[in-house]
Amino acid sequence: MTSDTADIPLCVRCSRSRKTCCQVSEIYCGAADKQRIAEYTGRTDFYTFVVAEGDWAPGDDDPPWRDLAFRPDGSRRILARRADGDCTFLGSAGCTLPMETRPLICRLYPFDYDHQGLRPQLSHHCPTQLMKPGETLLGALDMTREVAERWRAQLYRELELERDDEDRADLRPAQ
Ligand code: SF4
Ligand code: SF4
Predict the structure, then answer these.
(1) pLDDT computed for residue 54 by the predictor
(2) How many other CB atoms are there within 10 angstroms of residue 127's CB atom?
(3) In the list 47, 79, 118, 142, which could disulfide-bond 27, CB 3.0-4.6 Å?
């Protein structure tokens, strides 16, 4: 890293060297995320349902996630992406949504977690080789475990709102 690039945030350095998390990820958009984004943008075309495959598929180790995020056909609501794979909210200077409107999944990245809490290890996708000497990944991303745990708890609390969502008749008893 040169002195010219030392002050550039890690996510910008990341975007200059490779595809970022906003360009390669399938982002679950919860029922409450959907409401917040719709209110902020006035849009309704920002999500779609896609069957989860491979790493995205649910496991039995996280029952609330498996049972509430996914429909019986294995699909879950995710942010729509452009033809090139980029999230439709990705702008030239990063995410165009304010933090309090971004899907909780985005806010939590690169934490890994389940219904019981945050896991000790962070996701391996961030380019730690681009960090400054002595920098930690959480420091570079301006994140803390305390705030992440709050968002994780909110994510699992809001999973329950799927039961009332218009797209989730599968979670309600047949009339
Ligand atoms: S969070 Fe990690 S993968 Fe995403 S843009 Fe920032 S450095 Fe890159
Ligand atoms: S909503 Fe924002 S943070 Fe989340 S994937 Fe899209 S551009 Fe990235």
Answers:
(1) 84
(2) 15
(3) 79
Q: Is the CB of 14 under 6 A from ligand 1?
A: yes
pLDDT tens profile 31-78: 999 999 999 999 999 999 999 988 888 889 999 999 999 999 999 999
User: Per-residue pLDDT tens for 92-102?
Assistant: 999 999 999 99
Q: Report CA(116)–ligand 1 centroid distance (Å).
A: 25
d(CA 56, CA 105): 13
Q: Is the pTM of this model over 0.85?
A: yes
Strand partners, 48: 78
Q: Write the single-letter amino acid at 144.
A: T
Cα separations in angstroms, 64 against 78, 137, 159, 163: 17, 29, 8, 12
Q: What does residue 89 show for φ and ψ, rounded to 5 degrees? A: -100, 5
The predicted structure's pLDDT at residue 5: 59
List, in order, residues 6 or more apart from 34 with CB less than 8 Å away.
47, 77, 165
Protein residue with its CA nearest to atom 4 in ligand 2: 106
Strands (E) across 55-123 are located at: 75-79, 90-91, 94-95, 111-114, 117-122
162 vs 72: CA distance, rounded Å: 13
DSSP state for residue 123 in the 8-state scheme: P
Domain boundaries, the chain: 10-163
